[in-house]
Amino acid sequence: MFTAEEVADATGLSTEVVKSFLDAFVCEPAEFDDELHGLPSGAHPLTAKPVLRVGDYYLIPVLSTVLETIRPRMEELLSEDRRAWEKHVQHRGRFVEQEAASLLAGAFPGSRSWTGLGWRSEADQSDLDGLVDCGDMALRLQCKSGRITAPVRSGAPKRMLKELVGEASEQHARLAHALEPQAPSSMGFADDEIRALSRPLQIEAIVTLDDVTTWATQAHRLQGIEILPAERSVPWVLSLTDLMVVVELLKGASLAQYLIRRQRLERDRRIEEHDELDWVGHYLSEGLFFDQFFEGENAPGRFKLMTYTDEIDAWYFTKQELRQRNPAPKPRQPIPEPLDQLLRRLATERPGNWLIASVAFLE
Prior knowledge:
Order of helices and strands: HHHEEHHEEEHHHEHHEHHEHEHHH
C-alpha cells in the first residue's frame, strides 16, 4: 500500500493532483454486489476502477488493469460536463479517422490518404471517413470511436454492434450503391480521390477505437444477426490498436495479399480464429492457405486455429525491454532472397500494376 504523498515524492507532482487522480479511480465497497460479482460472469467493478482505499492508503490489486481504465474513467468524468464531452467526442472521432488513414498510408509505398470526405449523389448523401490510395488498391475507411461498455458486452452486444459496425457498414453500402449508376466525379470527389475510387482492388474497412476482437475475426456471423447485410461482402473489421500492430508487421504487397486472403476467409466461413493478430501470425509463418484441410472424404466442416501470436508477443516484449534474455527478432515471412529483392525493387520503382504483380508473386 502507498500514500498520495509517496507518489507525489516519486513523481514530482503535487499531492493534491495525485490524490485527485487516485480518488477518481477508487472502487468503493458499495460498488461490489456479492450476488452479481461473486460469480464468474458480470463485469467486476475493479475492471473499471482499479484502486482500493484504506484510510489514507491506496492499493492497486492488479496493476496491469490501470492503463485499460484510464480512458473510460476519464470519459465518464468528462461526460458530466456537456460542452466538454461534445468537444471530446468530436476530437476523438477525428483522431481515429486520421490515425487509421495515416497508419495504412504509411504501410504502402507511394500511397496517399484523405479523411472526412463528404459526397452527394442524385439520391443520397453521406461521408467517407478515410480513403487510402495504394496504387492498384484503395482502402475505404469508416471509423467509429464510440465505447463498448462492460454492461453492453455482457448484456446487450447487438445494440452496440449495430451502432458501431452496423452503421459503418451501412455507410460503406450507401457509397457503393451510389457509385453504381453515377461517376464519382459528379459526387464531389477531387481528381486524386476519383482515381483511388477507380482502382481495381477496393477494400472496405471498419476501424473502431474500442476492442471488437471476437466479432472482428468472425464478422460474417454478424450477417446472421442482421448487423451486416447478407447480400454484401463482409468488411475488414478491427480495432485501432490491432491496426497499429498489423501495419507494423506487414507492409506493401504483403499487407495487400493479407487483406485479399483475409477477405476470402470471411467469404469461406469455415476457418475460425479468436484474434486478428492470430491471423497475422499465421500469415507470417504459413500464409493464409487452408484449402488442403477441406480436401478428401473425411474433411472437416470447420477448422479452428490455435494461437499464433507467440512470436509477435516475444518481439514486443523484446522491443519494450521486458525480455532481457534470448531477445526475439521481428517476425517476418520466409521469402526467398531473390524474390524479396524483386519485391523491394517493384515497391521502389512502382511501375504500372506493381502491387497486383507483387501479390501474384507472393501467391
